[in-house]
Amino acid sequence: MYFDELYLNDNILDALDDMHFETCTPIQEKCIPEILDGRDLIGIAQTGTGKTAAYLLPILSLLDDGLYPKDANNCVIMAPTRELAQQIDQAMQGFGYYLQDVSSVAVYGGNDGNRYDQELKGLKMGADVIIATPGRLISHITMGNVDFSRVSFFVLDEADRMLDMGFCDDILKIASQLPKNCQTIMFSATMPPKIEQLAKTLLKNPAEVKLAVSKPADNIRQGAYVCHENQKLRILKHMFTLNEPHRVIVFSGSKLKVRDITRDLLRMHINCGEMHSDLDQSQRDDIMYRFKSGQIDVLVATDIVARGIDIDDIEMVINYDVPHDAEDYVHRIGRTARANKDGVAVTLVRGREIGSFMQIEKFLERSVDKLPLPEGIGEGPEYKPQPGGKSFGRGGKRFGSRGGNKRRNGAGNRNNSQGRKKNGQGRGNKHDPKRRNKQGQAGGNKPKY
Question: Distance between CA 421 and CA 260 in Å, rounded?
Answer without folding.
Answer: 57
